[in-house]
């Protein structure tokens, strides 16, 4: 089968022919219908987060149709539409048994520590399959597995309550979901900070107050709009030193600041004025939980979470096209989400 693979840090991904994966007794073989290209993939290619083993097939936002099942599989059947939870875990350790499966002692993330979905087929344990309703296209279902799921988990970590104010730094795939989910969780006001007017326009359609970080001082503007109070929850989804700092600086009294974006520079804090004085909490948010995904998919099915505009570009399973998409992410350009559609041979759209 054809796969797009990582061969080394700061090197273009390559197209390779590799065997269709063999499945075990509790595994499923999925014919990939869509694989999202995440900003994390650009970080992996750049060496910000190490990849192993090498070579490796990228892709952790995956949706498709089950083509084979192992003899011990009972929860799904051949022909089912599914999206895939990207953390392969043991299911038995302390962290798995307490619902914190991303910390499994044997965790392997698709497209990071084991072959992912930039391919025609993928093999995963059956427990990683999340049913994908007919109402949700594969391209949109794939983005739920990271962009939306990561936002959902971050908001749960923030303990957002009805009537609170939220600032979202980054209006890409994660940010657009975060805006909508924050409103669904009861946020009174949601501020979306970005430097791309198209992304801000979309965030505004979802009910956010857009803040153009390239034209105004985002911190000063949010403080002005909140009459000096700041926000109750700030979520940073970009991974830049500047925006992490801004997320801390817009925090009001007893606010929660959640850091999601992967950064290669440290966050510096004035510990008294920015943290201790107002009892601000700084929270890290890593991935999401398997048990969160069925509710998230149902929210998308019922249009509580509108993902119809999340996919702004589709491309074939082609290394040149994928590398161009990753280049755009490294430069913080491009649309909300680019998705690979392996079965296609048509030009990029």
Provide a descriptive summary of the structure in words.
The chain has 349 residues and is α/β, with parallel strands linked by helices. The chain has helices at residues 39-46, 94-97, 138-158, 173-184, 197-205, 218-225, 241-249, 271-276, 293-301, 319-330; strands spanning 2-6, 14-17, 27-37, 56-57, 61-69, 81-84, 87-88, 108-109, 121-125, 129-131, 165-169, 189-194, 209-212, 231-236, 251-259, 281-284, 311-315, 337-340. Helix content is 28%, strand content 26%. Strands 3, 5, 6, 9, 10, 17 and 18 form a seven-stranded mixed beta sheet that branches. α1 (39-46) packs across α10, α3 (138-158) crosses α4 (173-184) and α3 (138-158) crosses α9. The radius of gyration is 20 Å and the shape is globular.
What labels describe this entry?
349 residues, alpha/beta, Quinone Oxidoreductase, Chain A, domain 1, Rossmann fold, 2 domains, seven-stranded mixed sheet, six-stranded parallel sheet, 10 helices, 28% helix, 26% strand
Summarize the topology.
Blueprint: E1 2-6, E2 14-17, E3 27-37, H1 39-46, E4 56-57, E5 61-69, E6 81-84, E7 87-88, H2 94-97, E8 108-109, E9 121-125, E10 129-131, H3 138-158, E11 165-169, H4 173-184, E12 189-194, H5 197-205, E13 209-212, H6 218-225, E14 231-236, H7 241-249, E15 251-259, H8 271-276, E16 281-284, H9 293-301, E17 311-315, H10 319-330, E18 337-340
Parallel strand pairs: 11-12, 11-14, 12-13, 14-15, 15-16, 17-18
Antiparallel strand pairs: 1-2, 1-4, 3-5, 3-9, 3-18, 5-6, 6-10, 7-8
Helix pairs in contact: 1-10, 3-4, 3-9
């Amino acid at each position: 089968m054809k796969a797009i693979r990582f061969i080394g840090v700061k090197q273009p991904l390559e197209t390779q022919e590799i065997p269709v994966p063999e499945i075990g007794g509790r595994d499923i073989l999925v014919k990939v219908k869509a694989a999202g290209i995440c900003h994390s993939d650009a970080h992996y290619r750049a060496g910000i987060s190490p990849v192993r083993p090498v070579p490796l097939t990228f892709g952790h936002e995956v949706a498709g149709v089950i083509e084979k099942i192992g003899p011990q599989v009972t929860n799904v059947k051949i022909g089912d539409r599914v999206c895939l939870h990207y953390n392969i875990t043991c299911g038995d350790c302390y962290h798995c048994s307490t619902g914190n499966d991303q910390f499994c002692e044997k965790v392997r993330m698709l497209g990071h520590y084991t072959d992912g979905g930039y391919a025609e087929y993928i093999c995963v344990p059956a427990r990683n399959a999340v049913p994908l309703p007919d109402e949700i296209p594969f391209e949109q279902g794939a983005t739920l597995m990271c962009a939306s799921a990561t936002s959902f988990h971050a908001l749960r970590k923030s303990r957002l309550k009805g009537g609170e104010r939220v600032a979202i730094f980054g209006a890409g795939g994660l940010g657009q979901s975060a805006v909508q989910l924050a409103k669904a969780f009861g946020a009174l006001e949601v501020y979306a900070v970005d430097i791309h007017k198209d992304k801000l326009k979309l965030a505004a359609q979802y009910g956010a107050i857009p803040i153009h970080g390239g034209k105004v001082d985002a911190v000063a503007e949010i403080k002005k709009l909140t009459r000096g109070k700041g926000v109750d929850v700030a979520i940073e989804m970009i991974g830049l030193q500047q925006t992490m700092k801004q997320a801390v600086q817009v925090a009001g009294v007893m606010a929660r600041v959640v850091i999601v974006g992967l950064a290669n520079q440290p966050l510096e804090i004035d510990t008294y004025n920015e943290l201790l004085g107002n009892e601000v909490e700084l929270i890290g948010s890593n991935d999401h939980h398997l048990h969160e995904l069925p509710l998230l998919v149902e929210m998308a099915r019922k249009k509580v979470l509108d993902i119809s505009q999340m996919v702004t570009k589709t491309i074939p399973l082609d290394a040149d096209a994928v590398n161009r998409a990753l280049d755009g992410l490294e430069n913080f350009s491009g649309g909300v989400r680019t998705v690979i559609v392996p079965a296609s041979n048509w030009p990029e759209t």
